[in-house]
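Exercise 7.
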Amino acid sequence: MLEPLPTLVTNTTPLIALTAATGNLDVLKLLFSRVIVPLEVAEEIRAGGTTEFGVDVFEHAHWLDIQKQVVHLQPFLKNSLDRGEAAVIQTALTMGVSLVCIDEAAGRRIARLCGLDLTGTIGLLIKAKQRGHPVSIPEAIERLRSHGIWLGAQVIQFAMAHA
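Solution. The predicted structure, written as tokens, is:
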């Protein structure tokens, strides 16, 4: 069996998207020994209340390392990104974690500028499939779309090429 990847800091959208694509967050548990969720990300997920899509799955994933303190953001992060993305990048930099999971283009661009490695929802699904997790990429893409999660044509093409 392959060793899990070490640690990941994740943003809100991938957590919601993985729930839409697979019905749970087990892909993260399969791929990583530790998944860090900044408090700001947890607050974004919980903002709509307990009946909002994905909240129940998030709350039942007791193995997630949900941070208890607000992240002190560097001004350039605070002024460039939303709270969740900024907190993901700052948390990774502060804790010395090299890999972040962000789907939005602006967050990905800033993460790269900060020297961080990136993945996103589709990258996680492909990696899980490569590691033997029973995920159908075409079905996952269809479930994402049915939940209103937009994917660009290049992302879909990339995913299908690796499916």
